[in-house]
Amino acid sequence: MTDSLRPLFLTLEGGDGVGKSTQQRLLAQWFREAGREVVETREPGGTVLGKELRELILHGGYVDPRAEALMFAADRAHHIATLVRPALERGAVVVQDRYLDSSVAYQGAARDLDVDDVRGLSLWATRGLLPDATILLDLEPESARLSGPKDRLEREGGEFHAAVRMRFLDMAAQEPERWIVIDASGTVDEVQAAIRAALSSRGLSAEPRP
Question: pTM score, two decimals?
Answer without folding.
Answer: 0.89
